[in-house]
Design brief:
Blueprint (H helix, E strand, L loop, with lengths): L6 H6 L3 E5 L2 E6 L3 H10 L2 E4 L4 E6 L3 H8 L12 E7 L5 E10 L13 E6 L4 H10 L6 E4 L4 E7 L3 H5 L15 E6 L2 E7 L8 E7 L3 H11 L6 E3 L1 H10 L34 H10 L3 E8 L10 E3 L5 E11 L4 E9 L8 E5 L4 E7 L5
Parallel strand pairs: 3-13
Antiparallel strand pairs: 1-2, 3-9, 4-7, 4-8, 5-6, 6-7, 9-12, 10-11, 11-12, 14-17, 14-19, 15-16, 15-18, 16-17, 18-19
Amino acid sequence: MQTTPLTETHRALGAKLVDFAGFEMPLSYGGLKEEHLAVREGVGMFDVSHMGEFIVRGEGARDLVQYVTSNDVNRLEPGQAQYSCLPRPAGGIVDDLLVYRLPPNPAMGMDDGHPAYMLVVNAGNIKKDWDWIKSHNTFGAEMMNISAKTALLAVQGPKATEVLQQLTDVKLADIPYYHFVRGSMAGQDNVIISATGYTGSGGFELYFDASVAESVWEKIMDAGKETGLLACGLGCRDTLRLEKGYCLYGNDINDTTTPLEAGLGWITKLKAGDFVGRDHLVAQKEAGLGRRLVGFKLDGRRAPRNGYGLIDADGNAIGEVTSGTHSPSLDYPIGMGYVAVGHHAPGTRIQVDLGRKQLAAEVVKIPFM
């Protein structure tokens, strides 16, 4: 398995380490519920250095990123980020990602008058995404894979600003949602401080040189002692994102799902010009969707799991569960899955099919909280 610059730190903290997308990653340190509630009510920190980062710059950079992503990068100003996806010609999704419009940076050669971008992709898709984007680079853009030398920490929760403000001169409260700045943090210069995250509880994501990851981690942990900052693993990262209805690649979206089916029409700008898969998505929208990704809550206490069937009240198959968990915040089981159109309206009664047993459930609006 691959490691992050902080794998040994996690091991020393007693984390339960698991294989995630080929990386040895912390699942939890103490307890999933404790870590989950720390992020919802206070502050927690995640090592997500397994994520991939690509730089796309130079002449043709804007055209390339615009062509391979579904959102409209022309709307991005330096210092802004957007959520997007890499669509396939037949409508599937190669990956979902964040696109950062980088400000001029002479030290990295990004001051030639052309836009420059950082694309942040899922760890399990780094090679696939790189090859996909490169195969469409007929625009003369320069591409750099900086994944191996980039560390990424996510400091999330309502008290994240309070903790991190001790370590920077940047006025963190002035960074709008989905914006970022370059500045000093925890004694390191040139850190990208991004008001983004995957928990729905606010906070920041910090991108910096992997060689100083241990120092930055330790300084943030020290700064958060009085606030109750907890190191958090991927276990609660999953429960946090699911409570907010955020898609997980490989579960809720993949090579066979389209962004329209997944409720991601808001990042699919069909009128912004041509991009990979646009014609298919236009046709799908005009013809009407056959299935929709929905959220549902269960009547009992048993949590649904990926791959369970979904059936209607008469026992007819209508779809499949893609994600499920027992919500630590709501204290009942929740899930997401695709159902045939006609069964997707909030309030619709459905069942999770376990084979010999069925679990009663109800379609609800996303986010769950």
